[in-house]
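Translate sequence into structure tokens.
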Amino acid sequence: MRRSTSWRRTCAAIARGCRWPRTRRLSATACASWSAGTRWPPAVTGFLEEVFRSSDVEEVPPGKDVTARELLDRGRAKVLTELADQPETQATLALTIGKAYRSLGLYDSAEPLLQRSLALRRQRFGEIHREVAESLDALADLYGRHDEAAKAEDAARRALAIHRALGDEPGTAESLNNLALALEDKSDLAAAEPLFWEALRIRRKYFGRADKESVAVLNNLATLRRLKGDLAGAESLYRQALSLARDAFGPGHPWIVALHGNLGVLLTYRGDLAGAEAAYREALAVARRAYGGEHPSIALTLNNLASVLVDRGRDRWPEAESMYRQALAVQRKLLGNEDHKVSITLNNLADLLEMKGDRKAARPLYEESLRIVRKVFGEEHPRVADELSKLAGLLADQGDLESAEPLALEALAIRRKLLGEAHPSYAASLVVVGSLRLAQGSPGAAEPLLRQAVAVYQKALPEHHRDTAAARSLLGSCLAARGRPAEAGPLLLSGYQDLRGKLGPDHPRTLAAQRRLDAFRGTARATGS
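Result follows.
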């Protein structure tokens, strides 16, 4: 989950999803409550009242709504031109308006204001001051949202050093959370986890269990546990966070959208598709009430719900494809064509098209997705491995084994290095490489890979999970090719039965398992074995 404040990640860009805020309408009432609900010096309050005065209903031309973007643009212009002789006030307002731009996903507009706030505060207070750390924390959050993990880590470490020097424990907790998120984005999960726990301990010490920032850190810990493959631990933490959030915020708060969405992700990983669909539909309903039309949380939820619908059966595919295309259109509009969140939806749509048998249409989408993630993340990142693995599978299905093999091996190496050999994603790469070896006519080379994949899945995933079932089916086919029918038969049968039970009889993975079982039975009848 990425953050919508420095504390939280809104709407995880996980296996299938993305996030990007859109300008929301801001009424005169909202503007007034914003100003009245925040304790600022009189100069700051008066300035905000002047900025927002023209948003009063009687001063807005008929038929024209004032958007948050328009109000912020007006405020930015005033801050930069009218407060040159009031550096402390300018720094405070630059930070406030920069955070507002950030929350709307307008990162290019946010960064200069946040940098201006930092420079003014350093000039006024020196390096070791709470307000300097506050501006650094805001920048760390901005860079994290913008997928600039190195910059986020640097800003968070500098803020953390200041908070610790001042003995500011609440500030320390915020910087710990930001630093942990940056490390997680760099796939350093082992270093990130103790920082989250320390941040949570501090927040609860000062503010109790129902503190909203504690809920956010708890959610971040759950996401980290999911990334580490601890699915039971992750579900427990997500449900704790959701329960606390309902008590603290009520059932219609935007955070509920994010938490339902992340729970849906987790339930999908655990193979509970009905539970995941229910979680996503609840998230979508809350998001539409909270945000209205084009909003990143709605696009994310459509994307993730579509992915569950794909796995729930062929009759749900038309709805799923429509949802993917809606999400992709919004993301391209808001992000352009080079953002990694766009690549996620490209991958999902390509996956569905491939399942429908339209590999020609799927291939350029996979290739575009891979190009984007290499550009954004570099050569070694779990997302790069995901895209490599998907494209390798498609090429193998098209019969281009020579092109598929280096991609599959590269994905395997990345996942082994970053995730370890006990992670389900590593098992998925073992399955891809094992499948290639089978297709190349080398079942002896495929067997140890598929056996290892089954063992990893059985330990990491719930009993009868579809990924475990598919791997068992492939292992059975491998053993049949090696002339060991007594071992092959039970694996082929149980793999098919579990897939049929989880995904239905018409799902491509079920049909592939059925073809393997039918081929095995046909050979057995022909040979009388």
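Note: Confidence is low (pLDDT under 50) at residues 1-40, 52-66.
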